[in-house]
Amino acid sequence: MAVVTGIRAAGGVAWRPVAGGVEVCLVHRPRYGDWSLPKGKLEPGEHPLRAAVREMAEETDVQAVPQVRLPSVHYRSEGRPKMVDYWSMHAVAKGGFQPGTEVDEVRWLGVDEAVRLVSYPHDAEVLAAFAALPRVTATMVLVRHAHAGRRATWSGPDAGRPLDARGWAQAHALAPLVALVRPVRLLSASARRCVQTLGPAAALLDLPIEVIGHLDEPRPGQQPDECALAAAARLSELAAAGEPVVVCSQGTVIPGALERLTGRAGDFTTPKGGCWLLAFSGDRLLAADRL
């Protein structure tokens, strides 16, 4: 019996501020004669978040910064199961849209009007979830350092342990992903492996790496809760500044910091080279999306 593979796609609700609220972006597809949210299929090996931002640019000529994961939708397309991941996205730039065979018209509408226009109930549900969000004032990518071998096999001070070949591959893969939030600062815990993890992103974005001790794991005799509180306070402070940033810390710090920022217990364990997309309103964390 043949195995039917699913289709993966990604897209977003791009928004821009207008007097009295926001407008969101819809596209008209002549092939289907429908109005829908911009979306498209993932390329081989592509992360859904990268696909969402790419498809937004390709279909609407809008450059957008992802903020909050919205509900994914599931349906059948051409006899195959399809899942589409969506994010809310702040439209930060746009060029001159040219009608094509895939999309021949783009409209910016108030959310209520967009809900009435979309052709599919699942798009209306995604728009409703977007409308329920508080205003996002800052985005952040929180990264755990990439793979750095085993502590037991490193003979020098642990803070000097470097990335291994696997870790460097992870760091290079992370760079274009964290660049999607268009960060203005890159901040790292003081461990060498944390700084190195942001190295490829620093080269890609032409930004310096700032080392801050508030993100370090506990020193001998120091309580983990103390480090988690310090890290959470520093992340809140960075968010309150209202600028997009990327932060690299350590596996013993990130879960506790996220528990304090979210105000709830949860599974915030993060694999080496893994990251979170965080969205804030002021210094308050609104959403933590595991990437």
From TrEMBL:
Superkingdom of origin: Bacteria
Show the coiled coil region(s).
none
Q: Which UniProt keywords apply?
A: Hydrolase
Q: Which GO terms describe its biological process?
A: AMP biosynthetic process; ATP biosynthetic process
Q: Which GO terms describe its molecular function?
A: bis(5'-nucleosyl)-tetraphosphatase (asymmetrical) activity
Domain (Nudix hydrolase) spans 5-131
Tell me the protein's name: NUDIX hydrolase
Q: What is the lineage of its organism?
A: Bacteria, Bacillati, Actinomycetota, Actinomycetes, Micromonosporales
